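Exam revision sheet. Question 4 asks you to relate a sequence to its structure. Input first:
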Amino acid sequence: MATVELSFSALPVHVRTARLIVTAVARRSGVAEALLDEVRLAVGEACSRTVEAHRLHCPDEPVRLELTGAGRRFEVTVSDTVPGDDAAGGPPAPPDADDLDFGLGEGTAELGLAVIAGLADDVEIATTPKGVQIRMSWPAEAEATI
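Answer key, structure tokens:
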């Protein structure tokens, strides 16, 4: 099956559009209607986390998504390009919570990842010197049509 690629400017307003596109592709990939809200919410959390990271560290870089339906799975990968600053590739330390435009405090990123883990059937988070990738997947019952 083909891969759908999506990239958008690191602006919160584009997260809604990404959720709508991912939901449409998930539906066409055979994800059950009962799971579409979970797909939409998990992708929204991942995209919001990525938009926040980009706005703080690399606002001109786009947020990237890859959507695939291989086998009987629908998979979404959300990638940021915030470079790591240590040998393990961890993201740079964020500024003080007072410096955040959104009024978000400490632990917000971890809470978002916990929400994603609760919504997706399978989650993998990879941190590299080039950024973070969040891969989420759900079962696809029907034959994919994209």
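Marking note for examiners. The chain is about 35% helix and 25% strand.
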